[in-house]
Amino acid sequence: MKSFKNLCKEELLKERENLQKQYDNYLKENLDLDMSRGKPCKEQLDLSNDILNINDYISRDNIDLRNYGILDGIKEAKKLFADILDIDENNIIIGGNSTLNMIYDAIARLYMFGYMDNTPWCKLSKIKFLCPVPGYDRHFDILEKFGFEMINIPITENGINMDMVENLCKNDEAIKGIICVPLYSNPTGTCYSKETVERLAKMETKAKDFKIFWDNAYALHYIYEKIELYNIFDACKKYNTQDRILYFFSTSKINFPGGGVSILAGSDNTIKDTLKHLSKQTIGYDKINQLKTVKFLKNKENTLKLMEAHSNILKPKFDIVLNTLEENFKNNPILKWEKPKGGYFVSVDTLEGLAKKVVAMCKEVGVVLTDAGSTYPKKIDINDTNIRIAPSFPSLEELQKAINIFCLCVKIATIDKMLAENNL
Ligand SMILES: Cc1ncc(COP(=O)(O)O)c(C=O)c1O
After folding, report:
1. Out of 16, 144, 222, 305, which residue is the most buried by the measure of CB atoms under 10 Å away?
2. Using one digit for the tens of pLDDT, what is the confidence trace for 375-386?
3. Is 387 helix (H, G, I), strand (E, B) or coil?
4. CATH assignment of 56-298?
5. CA dist list (Å): 262 to 93, 97, 140, 345
6. Of all atoms in ligand 1, which is nearest to the CA of residue 102?
7. 106 CB contacts (<8 Å, ≥6 apart)?
8. 344: CA distance to ligand 1 center in Å?
9. Dist. CA 28 → ligand 1 center (Å)
10. Distance CA 75, CA 290 (A)
11. Residue to mutate, 97, 98, 188, 256, ligand 1, most ligand atoms under 8 Å from C-beta
12. 1 pLDDT exceeds 70?
């Protein structure tokens, strides 16, 4: 296929007519295909079915876990996640089934009570947060709910625009935090380099109680390449800034989303401060599930084997998406994307002003994508270019059809834009 740029108006109109016919044929099929959320597929969920047969409830210290208690989590779970994530056991709290819930609660505690002796954020006239974009819609939704001003920070090849982050944090006391997905990030698949992690640890912040929300949701979720993330605790120890870390992780995409366990990790001060408040929120989380998780995952080595099995299921799906994009747009650069090394998404950018239209066209023909704009705070993508594709859930056949339709919609929307702008 020739680049649209090299076609005259008549050729474009002819191509448009041909594409419209294909679109109309798809319309007749009454399709119902979903590439909207990063959900594991059935084959991935089946990998963890054995966890359902584990009925133990006595801990390694002979504690009956059916009863109340152990607010910070059972020792064997702390040990397992300490090994997996290379964090000291004493700096880990094992929580309930969701990191998103933990992130929300952590923000709520800072908002209502403040960190240690610092002023609660609710008493300050303005709170600002730095938001790497494109990013995770549910993070932005939490920050919006609390009324924080969100400042977009562009994602770069090595993480985020650190010059911008450093300048802003150094000069503005109202900037209280940044929310990062440092590995195989949602949706761009970006991995933060050692330099980026180091600069986040080292940078000067005008706010004394500045927090880095380090949502390492995809810590183990490689597809094409295993990337070693520089340990933020090691980096912060060098500069004595450990108190700025709030580290999150869960087994949602290791065993069952919403049915796993989450962790919060932080400095000694952070763990102490968190437990002080947490003890008023709950008597303890679901320790039986914690034990089941440990018995199922066993150790780091076994967990990595399970992640390899996930990767083997996901890779052919990412191949379909990436190969189809390549076939359709390699010589016709009207869509941009990066090949992610892992994670759950492929992030693409249309020409300016087309993302909403493409998503709407896909929807009309029965292909559901995440709403355009969702990858930006308040759902405002000023250029209207970014679309998040989630290949994990559909079957290979469904996915191939869905991505073919997506490419078709991109082409139609682009031709319409070119014709409308008379850009020929
Ligand atoms: C970056 C990120 N954080 C958190 C979550 C949700 O995690 P949990 O199931 O532990 O609440 C997701 C889910 O897609 C995610 O992409």
Report:
1. 222
2. 999 999 999 999
3. strand
4. 3.40.640.10
5. 9, 6, 20, 21
6. 11
7. 213, 246, 264, 274
8. 11
9. 36
10. 10
11. 98
12. no
DSSP codes joined into one string, 108-159:
HHHHHT-STTSPPGGGSS--EEEEEES--HHHHHHHHHTT-EEEEEEEETTE
Atom of ligand 1 at shortest range from CA of 38: 14
Predicted confidence at residue 162, as pLDDT, reads 98
* CATH 3.90.1150.10 location in the chain: 4-44+304-420
Distance CA 375, CA 341 (A): 19
Q: Tell me the per-residue pLDDT of 356-411, one tens digit each, with 9 for 90 and over.
A: 999 999 999 999 999 999 999 999 999 999 999 999 999 999 999 999 999 999 99
Question: Reduced to 3 states, what is the DSSP secondary structure of residue 83?
Answer: helix
CATH 3.40.640.10 domain span(s) along the chain: 56-298
* DSSP letters spanning 234-280: HHHHHHT-GGGEEEEEESTTTS-TTSS-EEEE--HHHHHHHHHHHHH
| Chain-centroid distance, C-alpha 30 | 31
Alpha carbon 159 to chain centroid, angstroms: 13
Q: Which CATH class is domain 4-44+304-420?
A: alpha beta
Residues 6+ apart with CB under 8 A from 142: 100, 103, 104, 107
DSSP reduced 3-state for 180: strand
CA of 215 to the centre of ligand 1 (A): 8
Out of 98, 99, 253, give the residue to mutate to test ligand 1, the one with the largest number of ligand atoms within 8 Å of its CB. Answer: 99
pTM: 0.97
Ligand 1 centre distance from Cα of residue 315 (Å): 20
Measured in Å, residue 279 CA sits from the centre of ligand 1 at 24
**For residue 151, which phi and psi values (nearest 5 degrees)?**
-110, 120
* Rounded mean pLDDT, 235-252: 98
Question: Which ligand 1 atom sits nearest the alpha carbon of residue 136?
Answer: 1
d(CA 418, CA 365) in angstroms, rounded, equals: 23
Site to probe by mutation for ligand 1, drawn from 215, 247, 263, 285 as the one with most ligand atoms within 8 Å of Cβ, is 215
Pocket residues: Cβ below 6 A from ligand 1: 38, 98-100, 136, 181, 186, 215, 217, 250, 252, 257, 262
Distance 217 CA to ligand 1 centre (A): 6
When pLDDT is cut at 50, 70 and 90, the band that residue 424 belongs to is low
Mutate to test the pocket of ligand 1, among 180, 186, 221 (most ligand atoms within 8 A of CB): 186
